[in-house]
C-alpha cells in the first residue's frame, strides 16, 4: 500500500530512526524488497518511486530529483533521515546531502557516481548502443544489453542471480518503453562532482565486486575526495542489495545504524 505526494508513490513501514531508500535508474522501489523486512525491523523505512518510475507519475517539466526526495521526507513527517541510495539513487542522495544538508543525518551510496563524472569511453559506447536500439524500437535487445552491463557486470552474460535479473528485466523494460520522451531532470550547478567538499554528513561508499570498472572508479573517487570508507560487496555487480542481500546488509547496517562512522 503506497501513499502519494505530488504524483510520487511512496511507502513507510517500521519504527526507529528514519531511513530513506532511493532506487537505481534501472529499477523501482521494489529493488529493496529483499532487505525491506529487515530494515523495517530497525528503522522507520521510507521508499518511493522516482518520477517516471513504477507507480509514480511521469514528469511534465524539468525538475530536481533531490527535491522530490525532500518532498517525500516532508510527506512522511521526517525532518532528518539516514539516506541509502543505489546507482542513480546514490547520486540523488549526494545532491540531497549537498543542497539540503539539514535533511541528511548520514548517507550511503551503492554503485554510484557523482553527477559530472566522466565514464570510460568503452562504457559510454555501450550506453550509445542502448540508445540506438531504443530509437530503432528494439526494446528486447536494449533491455538485454543493459542487463549485461548492470546485472551481469564483468561476469559472463546471464551470470547474475536469476531472481534479481528477472526483476530488473521487468522494471528496466518498462522504463525503456516509458521514458525516451520524458523531460530531463536538472543537475546541481555546478554538478555534485565539484561540490563533494560541501558534504558534512558521514558517508559510506559501497560497490559490488563485479560492477563496471568505470562505475567503481567513480565510487572510489567519491570516497577519496570525501575521506570516506569504501567497501566492496562480494558476489554482486551493480545492485548488491538485490543480488546478495545478506552480504550487503553485513556491510552497510553497522554504518546505517550508527555503530561505526
List the helices and strands and how they pair.
Blueprint: E1 3-5, E2 8-13, E3 18-22, H1 33-40, E4 44-48, H2 65-75, E5 81-86, H3 88-99, E6 104-110, H4 121-135, H5 139-152, H6 162-178, E7 203-208, H7 213-226, E8 229-233, H8 240-243, H9 245-256
Parallel strand pairs: 3-4, 3-5, 5-6, 6-7, 7-8
Antiparallel strand pairs: 1-2, 2-4
Helix count, per DSSP?
Answer: 9
- How far apart lie the N and C ends? 34 Å
List segments where confidence is low: pLDDT < 50 over at least 5 consecutive residues. none
Number of domains: 2
Mean pLDDT: 97
Let me know the largest β-sheet.
Answer: 8 strands, mixed
Structural class of the secondary structure composition? alpha/beta
Roughly how much helix do the residues carry, as a percent range? Answer: 40-55%
Order of helices and strands: EEEHEHEHEHHHEHEHH
Number of strands: 8
CATH architecture descriptor of the largest domain: 3-Layer(aba) Sandwich
Reading side by side through the largest sheet, how are the strands ordered?
Answer: 1-2-4-3-5-6-7-8
Which percent range describes the beta-strand content?
A: 15-25%
* CATH fold annotation of the largest domain: Rossmann fold
Architecture overview:
This protein has 261 residues and is α/β, with parallel strands linked by helices. It has 2 domains: 3-118 and 183-256, Rossmann fold; 121-178, no CATH class. Helices cover 41% and strands 16% of the residues. The protein has 9 helices and 8 strands. Strands 1-2-4-3-5-6-7-8 form an 8-stranded mixed β-sheet, sandwiched between helices. β7 (203-208), α7 (213-226) and β8 form a beta-alpha-beta unit. α2 packs across α3. The chain is globular and about 45 Å long. It starts with a strand and ends in a 5-residue tail after the last helix.
Amino acid at each position: 500500500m503506497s501513499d502519494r505526494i505530488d504524483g510520487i508513490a511512496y511507502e513507510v513501514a517500521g519504527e526507529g530512526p528514519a531511513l530513506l531508500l532511493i532506487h537505481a535508474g534501472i529499477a523501482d522501489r521494489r529493488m529493496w524488497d529483499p532487505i525491506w523486512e529487515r530494515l523495517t525491523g530497525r528503522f522507520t523505512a521510507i521508499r518511493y518511486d522516482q518520477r517516471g518510475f513504477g507507480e509514480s507519475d511521469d514528469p511534465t517539466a524539468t525538475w530536481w530529483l533531490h527535491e522530490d526526495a525532500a518532498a517525500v521526507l516532508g510527506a512522511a513527517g521526517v525532518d532528518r533521515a539516514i539516506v541509502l541510495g543505489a546507482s542513480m539513487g546514490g547520486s540523488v542522495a549526494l545532491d540531497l546531502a549537498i543542497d539540503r544538508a539539514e535533511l541528511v543525518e548520514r548517507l550511503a551510496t551503492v554503485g554510484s557516481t557523482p553527477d559530472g563524472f566522466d565514464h570510460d569511453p568503452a562504457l559510454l559506447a555501450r550506453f550509445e548502443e542502448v540508445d540506438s536500439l531504443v530509437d530503432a524500437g528494439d526494446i528486447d535487445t536494449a533491455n538485454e544489453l543493459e542487463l549485461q552491463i548492470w546485472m551481469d557486470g564483468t561476469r559472463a552474460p546471464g551470470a547474475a542471480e536469476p531472481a534479481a535479473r528477472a526483476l530488473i528485466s521487468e522494471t528496466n523494460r518498462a522504463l525503456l518503453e516509458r521514458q525516451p520522451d520524458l523531460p530531463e531532470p536538472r543537475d546541481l550547478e555546478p554538478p555534485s562532482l565539484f561540490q563533494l567538499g560541501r558534504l558534512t554528513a558521514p558517508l559510506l561508499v559501497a560497490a559490488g565486486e563485479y560492477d563496471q570498472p568505470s562505475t567503481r572508479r567513480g565510487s572510489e573517487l567519491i570516497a577519496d575526495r570525501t575521506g570516506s570508507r569504501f567497501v566492496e560487496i562480494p558476489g554482486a555487480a551493480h545492485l548488491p542489495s538485490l543480488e546478495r542481500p545478506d552480504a550487503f546488509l553485513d556491510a552497510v547496517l553497522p554504518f546505517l545504524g550508527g555503530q561505526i562512522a
